[in-house]
Structures are given as structure tokens and as C-alpha cells.
Design brief:
Blueprint lengths: L21 H28 L7 H31 L12 H28 L4 H27 L9 H32 L5 H34 L7 H20 L1 H6 L49 E4 L2 E8 L10 E5 L8 E4 L3 E4 L16 H28 L4 H31 L12 H28 L5 H20 L12 H31 L5 H34 L6 H43 L20 H4 L39
Antiparallel strand pairs: 1-2, 2-3, 4-5
Pfam families: DUF6534 (PF20152)
Organism: Hydnomerulius pinastri MD-312
Protein name: DUF6534 domain-containing protein
Length: about 700
């Protein structure tokens, strides 16, 4: 952290603990960022893996629009807390007003919710034309919620005072919005479930099983949404002036979008379970039923408020003094010592300006007159210091969402050996732990020590702990990649293997030496600069050597088999993309730190390093299923061509098909077993069984992230 000049002595900056007010919204924003990362990755999986027909075009359009509006809503919330905690660090009076993004976020959320609810009503009607009363009820509730939500947005724009949220007018309209939105969701789930049960009686056991599985998805989604939505409504009705409902409100729309995407992406899992005829949203017709069923997502009124009741102990003894502030000369007219039950009140006014008769009640300064200038204690604008790290914290939270989802996909789809599973579990756990340390560190600085400039002059323990965790993640990823280089080409690959290990251990050791000083000024010291430069440089060289060696040995392992070459080309592409991404991040980290170590511009890039290592490793491991599908399609096409020519096709049993090495029957026209002798057997990578995706004995000698 960089040091910040203090306009007046630190004693005049009594810190304010905002844990019970802004703190709840801070945690809600962090969790919403994680869910946003899951949303982005699920959207990518949807467009990559699903080839829906024209029947789902409207769903795709609604999905894209809702995801964009959901991201925009998150951006508004992120700016609001940036405005509160970073740009006005220490300005207690800024909490009395609602920034403009609150009102804008209201309109965005209401429009997204209204469109999604109408879309679900239309889907129910398309599923069964006789269910038009259900669609009418849903549309009516959605319209009432939309209208009341627009009214709340108008009130938020017109009245920027934070007390307006708890006013009777705004509170009643907000209760109507949340109540009808909750009722709409309950009607959607309950009546759509009843429609499935009583209107679908297919004559086939397999179809019944598929419908039962879909009903389970709908029920699980409905229960989750009802819990989140009901908690949001209950907390707001009971205590609208408290901030306990804010985290649930922030995460609500993310839950809607993610549950919808999860149901759409689950179709591939259903297909793998022998339900080859099911397609969510495009169900095959039968004599008794034919329709579409698609879930939807909803978000609700996004107003947020900050209550200002908290215990503050500004000063302990009377004083009368003058000093120069940012807006002129001010004088403390009277200071009465405060107690635990009655905080002191401070009368303030600008010199030469008479006080007014209408006081302003400030939770920190006590009773103030309207001519008092709010900046008695000039706040610190941390936009150039803590600001970049604040945005980086939200970005790594998004990356953490991607990590969580990729880890879930890995353990669900692959049956690798315990060493590889242990590595993935370790990296995921360490990634979560490092993220938690950073979140707690910024919570301590921005929320628990709001307005305390001394808090940014000392590096919190969470930063050092996060650095140690990142070192372990980086070392584990580099050692794993070194083992893969050695496994691809054992003959002659040991120099590259040894080089990667040496640079990885050297980078880890130097990083340990450069971490540990709690002072922010120590970051810019000459010794720490040299150690950090060596650390990043050795890590960059290690990644470059690993990527270059892997590409080289994969290239020399090419054969005359088109399918094998296609897999190798895909692996080379993954390795190159990973290497470029790591080189860009590590290079930017090194350049920014060398250019200005005393500034905080390098910290956001440094915070991303561990997330990049974890996500690139998981992406390569999870890419095996995509490569298998690609190879299966190529194999099926080859066999079809051979059959059309009257030739005897190659063994097409997909349950036991393996990628054969050079010298196999496809190359030489001979039938060798998979373990049969071959002159160039040691020069190619081994692969994994297509059906199980698990490790075989042959894979123990090849790259674990191969197909």
C-alpha cells in the first residue's frame, strides 16, 4: 500500500466502524461478484456446448439481455460502494445521500425482472394452451411489481436523502413490489409443477424418467429462489431502515440467472445418462403431449439504504481551536464530552456565517446547522491508491466464481486418480483462502476503519497471508506443468523438466524472502524491490520455458493419424493460450512494479496471478471432454465414409475406443493391441479412455490434461 499525505493530524480523524451498515452491503457485493463469475462462465458454456434451434431463439435473446442487465446492475452497486468507501474515505456525511447509480439500478432491475416474468408466462402458455389462466395471473402480478418498481425508482431519483428509503411512501411501494414479485415466483413454480403433473401422461418409461428429472430441477430452483426472495421480503418488511436485507437483494438476480443457466447446461448431463431424446425447452412430441417448458429468472427492487446508528467516541475532552480546512477556516464552537449512552455533540459553523435555526442531525458530528461545511475533517480520496485494488478485489471475486464452477465440473465429470484430484482440491482450497484473506483485509481498511488514514499506512495481515497462498498456488501449478512436460516426451525432456523445477523453486524462495514486513513504506525499499523483481522475472521465465517445451515436444509427437494430430493441435493451442495469458499478467506485474513500486498500480495485477494459474489449469483439465467429443465426431465421420466405400469400418465401439498411437492399425493397416510394441511408442503422448474420462495405465506416462 502506498503512503498518503495527511492534510491535518491523524488525531482529528477518529475512525468510524461501519460494520453494521455499509459492511453488510460490502459482503453482499463480494458474494454477488462471485455469482457473477459463475454467470459469465455458464453463459460461455451455454453458447459453446448447445446448438439450439429456432424454438429457443427467444430464450437466448432474453438470456443475453437479462445477463447484460444483471451485469449492469452489479456495476452500479460496485460504483456506489466505490463512491462511499474509496472516493469519500472518511466523509461521514456522504452516507446521508444516495448516489445516482441507486436510482438507475432500480430501473435496470425492474425491467429485467418484468421481461423474465413475462417470458415465463409465455412459456407456460406455449407449453399448454389450456393453462392461459396461469399465464394471466403471472402476467398480472409481474405488471403490478413492474409498476411499483418504477415508482420506487422515481422516488429514489427525486429524493436522494437516505432517510427517504424508510419513509412511509417509499416503504409501502417497495413492499408492494417485493410482495407481488415473490407471489409471481411462487405461482410460476407451483402452478407450472401442477401443469406438468396433471397434463403430461406419456406412455414411455424413459420419457417419464426424463420428465421426473426436469420436475426435480424446477422444484430445486423454485425452493432456492423462494428462500432468497422470501428472506429479502421478510427482512425489508421487518426492518426497512436496517441493511440486513441488502445482501440478499444484491444476490437475488444472480441466483435467478444461474439457476436458469444451470438447467439449460444440464441437458448434456441428461444426454450422457441415456436420455438422448430430451431437450429442455424443445421436448419431443408424442400422442399425448407436445410443448415447451423453460424456466426463467427474476430480479426485484434494488433500493438500498445505509442506516447511521452506531457508537462513536470522537473526543474525550473539551477544546476550542481553529484550523484550516479544504473550504475555508472553521472553528469548533463547543465540544461536550460524550458518554457511552450519549455521544457528544459538536456545534460547527464557518467563521462569519450565522447559524440557522434548523439543525442537521449527523450520526458522527451530532447536531449541526445547515451552514456548517461537511468537510470539517477533509476526507481522503483514495482513487489513485486503494481505488485500483478495490476494483481488482471485485474482479478476482468474479474469477473465484469461475474457479468454483470449474472445480464442480471437474469433480462431476472426471474420475482421475487421487494425485490429480488432490492437486485440484488443494489449488481450489488455496484459491478460496487467498481470496478470503484479501476480502477481510479490505474490509478492515475501508469499513472497520472508515476515515482512519493510519489504516492504509500498515499492510494488514491478510495481504501477507494472501501472498503466501499465491506462492503455493504458483509453485504447485509450475511443478505440475513440469511433470506434464516430462510425461509427454521422456526421452530428452529432462533438461527442460529440470529447468522448470529450478526456476519454480527459485521464484518461491525469493518470494518468501520478500514478504513479511508490515509497513507500507517497506514495499518501496531497495531490498524489497530487488527481491520482487527477481521473483516475478524467474516466475515469468519458468512459465515461458514450460510453455515452449510443451509445444515443442507435442509438435515432435505428431503422427500420420489425422485424429491424433487434431488432438495434439488442440493441446498446443491450449498451451499457447495459457502461456500468453500468464506472460501478459506476469509481465505487466513486473513492468508496473519496476516503473513505480511506491504506487499501487501493480497490486491489481499481482492479485490476479493466483486466479490465473488456478483457472487455466482447471480449464485445460475440463477441456478433455470437448476434445473427446471432437474426436468421436471425427471417428464417426471416418467410419461412415469407409462404410459408403464398401470397406470394413474400424472398430466403432465407442465404449472402448482409445486414441491409438503411431504404428497402430490406422497407420500401418495392422491390428496391434493398445499395448502392443511400436518403434515410436515412446514418442507420442498417452491419452485417456473416451467413455470414462478417467486415467488409464497409459495416461500415467502422459499429460494428465490430455484427452
Amino acid at each position: 500500500m502506498s503512503s498518503t499525505s495527511l492534510p491535518i493530524p491523524p488525531a482529528l480523524f477518529p475512525p468510524v466502524n461501519l460494520s453494521s451498515t455499509i459492511g453488510t452491503g460490502y459482503w453482499g457485493l463480494i458474494v454477488a461478484s462471485v455469482l457473477l463469475g459463475c454467470t459469465m462462465l455458464q453463459v460461455y458454456f451455454y453458447f459453446r456446448n448447445n446448438k439450439d434451434g429456432w424454438g429457443l431463439k427467444s430464450l437466448v435473446i432474453t438470456l443475453c439481455a437479462a445477463s447484460a442487465l444483471d451485469t449492469l446492475s452489479w456495476a452500479f452497486f460496485a460504483y456506489v460502494y466505490y463512491y462511499y468507501l474509496v472516493k469519500n474515505f472518511g466523509n461521514d456525511l456522504v452516507l446521508l445521500n444516495i448516489p445516482w447509480p441507486f436510482g438507475a439500478e432500480v430501473f435496470v432491475e425492474v425491467v429485467a425482472a418484468y421481461l423474465s416474468q413475462l417470458f415465463f408466462a409465455w412459456q407456460i402458455y406455449g407449453f399448454n394452451k389450456k393453462s392461459w389462466p396461469i399465464s394471466a395471473v403471472i402476467a398480472t402480478f409481474a405488471t403490478v411489481a413492474f409498476g411499483s418498481g418504477i415508482a420506487v425508482g422515481v422516488y429514489s431519483v427525486q429524493d436522494v436523502a437516505v432517510n427517504s428509503i424508510g419513509s412511509k411512501t417509499t416503504s409501502v411501494v417497495t413492499d408492494i413490489n417485493k410482495g407481488f414479485a415473490t407471489a409471481c415466483d411462487i405461482v410460476c413454480q407451483v402452478l407450472s409443477y401442477a401443469s406438468d403433473e396433471f397434463n403430461l401422461n406419456p406412455p414411455f418409461t424413459r420419457t417419464n424418467s426424463m420428465i421426473t428429472l426436469l420436475i426435480i430441477y424446477i422444484v430445486n430452483r423454485g425452493v432456492l429462489l423462494t428462500l432468497v426472495q422470501g428472506t429479502d421480503l421478510l427482512l425489508f418488511v421487518c426492518a426497512p431502515n436496517q441493511d440486513t436485507w441488502v445482501p440478499f437483494h444484491m444476490c437475488l438476480s444472480k441466483v435467478y440467472v444461474n439457476t436458469l443457466l444451470a438447467m439449460l447446461n444440464a441437458r448434456s448431463t441428461i444426454l450422457k445418462n441415456d436420455f438422448s431424446s430430451i431437450s429442455l425447452g424443445e421436448t419431443q412430441s408424442s400422442s399425448n403431449y407436445s410443448s415447451e417448458q423453460r424456466p426463467t429468472f427474476t430480479s426485484h427492487i434494488p433500493t438500498i439504504e445505509t442506516t447511521l446508528s452506531r457508537k462513536v467516541y470522537p473526543f474525550t475532552k473539551d477544546s476550542k481551536e481553529s484550523f484550516h480546512g479544504q473550504s475555508g477556516v472553521f472553528q469548533i464552537l463547543a465540544v461536550s464530552s460524550g458518554t457511552e449512552h450519549e455521544p457528544q455533540k459538536i456545534g460547527l459553523r464557518s467563521k462569519g456565517v450565522p447559524p440557522t435555526t434548523k439543525p442537521i442531525i449527523c450520526p458522527f458530528f451530532g447536531e449541526m446547522n445547515s451552514t456548517s461545511v461537511p468537510l470539517l475533517f477533509p476526507p481522503l480520496d483514495l482513487s489513485t491508491s486503494v481505488g485500483p485494488s478495490y476494483w481488482a478485489l471485485l474482479i478476482i471475486s468474479i474469477f473465484l466464481g469461475c474457479t468454483e464452477l470449474q472445480t464442480y465440473f471437474y469433480f462431476r465429470n472426471y474420475n482421475d486418480g487421487w494425485p490429480l484430484k488432490s492437486l485440484v482440491a488443494f489449488m481450489c482450497t488455496a484459491d478460496n483462502l487467498g481470496w478470503a484473506f484479501l476480502v477481510q483485509a479490505y474490509y478492515s481498511i475501508l469499513v472497520k476503519n472508515f476515515g482512519n488514514p493510519l489504516a492504509i499506512l500498515t499492510i494488514p495481515m491478510g495481504f501477507a497471508a494472501s501472498d503466501y497462498v499465491t506462492m503455493c498456488i504458483e509453485l504447485a501449478a509450475q511443478l505440475f506443468f513440469a511433470s506434464q512436460v516430462y510425461g509427454v516426451h521422456r526421452q530428452g525432456s529432462w533438461p527442460a523438466y529440470a529447468t522448470i523445477i529450478v526456476f519454480a523453486i527459485a521464484s518461491f524462495g525469493v518470494a518468501i524472502l520478500s514478504t513479511g514486513s508490515p509497513s507500507a513504506a517497506s514495499v518501496a525499499s531497495r531490498k524489497v524491490q530487488i527481491l520482487n523483481d527477481i521473483n516475478v522475472a524467474t516466475s515469468l521465465i519458468c512459465d515461458a520455458v514450460a510453455a515452449g517445451a510443451m509445444c515443442f515436444y507435442l509438435t515432435v509427437s505428431r503422427t500420420n493419424v489425422a485424429r491424433t494430430n487434431s488432438v495434439i493441435s488442440s493441446l498446443i493451442l491450449y498451451v499457447v493460450n495459457r502461456g500468453i495469458l500468464l506472460a501478459v499478467v506476469q509481465g505487466a506485474n513486473l513492468i508496473l512494479y519496476i516503473y513505480s513500486p511506491s504506487k499501487d498500480y501493480w497490486i491489481p495485477v499481482h492479485m490476479l496471478v493466483g486466479k490465473i494459474y488456478t483457472n487455466t489449469l482447471l480449464a485445460m483439465l475440463n477441456a478433455r471432454s470437448t476434445l473427446r467429443d471432437k474426436m468421436n465426431d471425427r471417428l464417426a465421420l471416418t467410419e461412415l465414409q469407409k462404410s459408403a466405400r464398401g470397406r470394413r469400418p474400424f472398430n466403432s465401439d465407442r465404449s472402448s475406443t482409445m486414441f491409438t498411437p503411431a504404428g497402430s492399425q490406422e497407420t500401418m493397416g495392422k491390428r496391434h493391441s493398445l499395448r502392443g510394441p511400436s518403434d515410436d511408442w515412446q514418442d507420442i503422448p498417452r491419452f485417456v479412455d473416451i467413455k470414462s474420462g478417467g486415467a488409464t495405465e497409459e495416461e500415467l506416462e502422459g499429460p494428465a490434461f490430455a484427452v
